[in-house]
TrEMBL record:
Residues 66-75 have a biased composition (Basic residues). Residues 48-75 are annotated as: Disordered. InterPro entries: DUF4750. The chain crosses the membrane at residues 12-35. It comes from Elysia marginata. Pfam families: DUF4750. Signal peptide: none annotated. Residues 50-65 have a biased composition (Basic and acidic residues). This is Small integral membrane protein 13-like. Keywords: Membrane, Transmembrane, Transmembrane helix.
Amino acid sequence: MTWEDIARETLTVLFSVVFTLILIVIAWFVMWRLFFSKIRFVREIISPDSDGKKNDISKKEELRNRREKRRRKDS
């Protein structure tokens, strides 16, 4: 085995790893856009607030739920 063969195999492995990581990132982004962002539970796990308070997403959802309850009571 020559140095050229070793370099070629090393580059092949390196590019394979980089390509795989790029595919994983793209797949995660697509799954987030299509599926995960719709589920409150997943959002809470992925982006927890550091001080234990509710994050902005759950605050917005809570406000929206309150508004919907008020509308139902009024009608």
